[in-house]
Structure formats: C-alpha cells, structure tokens
Amino acid sequence: MTVQTTRRPSPPDRNGSRGPQRNTRPPIVAAPPTTKKKRKDPLWAKLIVVFGALLMMASGAGVVGTKWLVRNATNSVTQDDLLGGTKKKAADGGGDIKGPVDILLMGVDARKRWAVDDLRSDTIIALHIPASHDQAYLVSIPRDTEMKVPAFPKAKYAGGTAKATEVFFHGAQNGGGWAGGAQLMAQTIKENTGMTFDGAAIIDFNGFKSVIDALKGVHMCVDERVKSHHMQLVNGKPMYLAEARKTAGVHKEIWYEKGCRDMEGWEALDYARQRYGLKNGDYDRQRHQQQLIKAIAKKAASSGVLTNPVKVNNLIKAAGKAFVLDTGDVPVADFMFGLKGVAANDMVLLRTNNGTFAGNANGRETITPKSMEMYNAVRQDKLSEFILANPDVVANEK
C-alpha cells in the first residue's frame, strides 16, 4: 500500500545543525510551507483529522462539501510514513476498507524547548474498527510496559529492552525523527503483541488543544480529585510550571474536582495527562485519555460541526497543526461510506491489565495473559466475542 507524504524541513537540533529531512517533523510552532505539492486524496487522513483522530463517522449527520473538505484537509495535514514495513498485510484484512481497520495512535508532548528527537510517546492506543464497521474500540498499551525492541538501523539503534514510552525516543535518534519513532513503535508492538495497523497518527498534545478549542470545549467527568502536576494559574492564566516559575504574580494550584462539566482545551488536556496522585496511576490516565478522545468525537458529531462548512474548515486548520498521519491509498467513496456506521456513542473503552499495575519478578510492567488475549482478539477481529466472555475489560467512563 503506497503512502503519500508531505514533509517539512527539520529545525536545527540542539547543536544547531540540521539533520536529514527524511522522515522528520518539526514542532508545531514552525511556519507551514508556502507551497504544497498536489497529491491524491486518501480519505484516511482527512477524516481522522476532521473527526479528532477517531473516525467519528456520525450516522446520518453527513458532511457538507465533501470534495471541498478533502481538498482543504489535504493542504493542512502533515503526512509521513509512520508504519514503515509493518503495515497490515492483505491476508489480515489490510489495504481494503471493507475489512477491519486498525489505527495506531501515539501521543507526544512537543514543547518549544524540546528537540525533535527528544520525545517519548506517553500515550499509545490501538483504535480498532471491526469488519462490521458498526463499532470502535480504544485499547491502550501501558507506557511503562517492558518490551523487547528490535534493532532499527535508521536510528542506529541496536535493539534491546525498553519501556514502551521509550521506544519512540530510540527510533527518533540520529535523524530518525518522528517517523522513525513511530516506525520503531509499530515494529515493537507487532513483535510483542502481534498487532499490526492500517495507518497511524502522531498526536501532539499541545496542538490538540486547538482542536478542542475549535469545538468550544468538551464535556468531561472527573472521577477522582487530582492536582495538576504540569500547570499552575498565574494571575488567573494557565501556565506550564517551567514558565510559571519565571513569572511574577499570584500563583494558584490547579485542582480537578469530582463531577462532570465542560472544559476548555487546556483543562481537558491537562486533566487527561495527570497520573500522579491517582489511585491506579498511569492506568487511570489511560482511561481519562480514552474518555477525552471519545468526548471530542461526541462533541464534533453532535454540535453541528460536521454540517457547517465554516466550522469544519476551522476544525481542519486546528487539527492540521496537531497530527502527523500515515494514510493508506484508500478510495475516498469507499472509506467515507464504508465507515459511516461508526459513531462517537459506539466507541468502547477497554482496560489493559485490569486497570492496575502488573509487574514481573524485576518489578517491571508486563502484559498479563488476559490482556494478551485481548490484543490477539484485535488482531483476529474477534474483540466483540472476547468482551462478551470478559465483560470486566470494559472501562467505567465515570
């Protein structure tokens, strides 16, 4: 399956030199190129971006000006080869929208002060849509899972053992860039779980804020009181701690109180990134991030965004700064109408390792046999049967 790519020049690294431009993506603060090469319009990228990386195909809602939408989305999305040679094979349903669709979602935190290759993927989610195209499942891979990582010559990585969150970092070294980090992640997941993917998306949390703001916020439910370990209010303005420490004024801690309410972009993202102080640590964070993804999908599907050309255009522009995508060469009509039954309310959130830490003899995070069965069910497109036999894997959304 061929992949269309659009690459932007790499920013200088910490030593001031420019690394290879192949398979790299600068932080979102870089100005977009003034001209773009014309290319085909695989719907993959456009709809993942427009619907917040969730394929939120609202049944019956329809999308106005499809050709116009696709054309404009193409101009605002960075595409790259994020899966390398690990794309799902045709024998497993790959390359054909009529079969099951699997997307690897990786979340990074790309702030200005960090180099392109100095990133880890703290969020790793498999989005699975069965061949019936009437459901969508979010399955997380815990960030601290100990994994066997294959050698990756592109980044001069010899292979070894690492936490899942560190895999992206190793693949991004020595010019590998974001695409290298994603490719090594996909290879590592395949070797450790057997799961392969039709496509992938790297989500920049900071750019994602613009997507939520374009939707005028999202509705979130806080299930456990927690303090922000990333931000403070300074004179009433939210700031990252590094910036807050250098700013004079009235400093106030940010606490997220139990209950359901509408949140602005910065609030929703900050809440979904907390893990310290929560009963189950990163597992609670995984669930909150899944909730956020579903909340974005639901808001876009129910707020009239998808039937309003101006709102769609604003959402596309915001999303274009938040994602890097690997797109399959799938015909527009097939993808559009083949997945129209997938709606935000049909998104099911699943728990890995029963939502708690599962350690080995060395105290490192592992994947339990039951969770490995769940990953196998994803690969075999038998997830609904697995859930019927194991209903406790479905996460409580409140």
Fold topology:
Elements: H1 43-50, H2 66-76, E1 78-79, E2 101-108, E3 123-129, E4 136-140, E5 146-149, E6 160-163, H3 164-172, H4 177-193, E7 199-204, H5 205-214, E8 218-222, E9 226-234, E10 237-240, H6 241-244, E11 251-256, E12 259-263, H7 265-272, H8 282-302, H9 309-320, E13 323-326, H10 332-338, E14 347-350, H11 369-379, H12 383-389
Parallel strand pairs: 1-13, 2-7, 4-14
Antiparallel strand pairs: 2-3, 3-4, 5-6, 7-13, 8-12, 9-10, 9-11
Helix pairs in contact: 1-2, 2-9, 3-4, 5-7, 5-9, 7-8, 11-12
Mean pLDDT: 74
Q: What is the CATH superfamily of the largest domain?
A: LCP protein
Number of helices: 12
Strand element count: 14
Sequence of strands across the biggest β-sheet: 1-13-7-2-3-4-14
Main structural class: alpha+beta
N-C termini distance:
40 Å
Task: Describe what this molecule looks like in 3D.
With 398 residues, the chain is of the alpha+beta class. The chain folds into two domains: 305 residues, LCP protein (Aminopeptidase, 3-Layer(aba) Sandwich); 34 residues, no CATH class. Helix content is 31%, strand content 18%. It is built from twelve helices and 14 strands. It has a seven-stranded mixed β-sheet with strand order 1-13-7-2-3-4-14, with helices on both faces. It has a three-stranded antiparallel β-sheet with strand order 10-9-11. Strand 3 and strand 4 form a beta hairpin. Helix 2 packs parallel to helix 9, helix 5 packs antiparallel against helix 9 and helix 11 runs antiparallel to helix 12. The longest helix is centred in the last third of the chain and has 21 residues. The chain is globular, with a radius of gyration of 20 Å. The chain starts with 42 loop residues before the first helix and ends in a 9-residue tail after the last helix. 49% of the residues are buried. The N terminus is likely disordered.
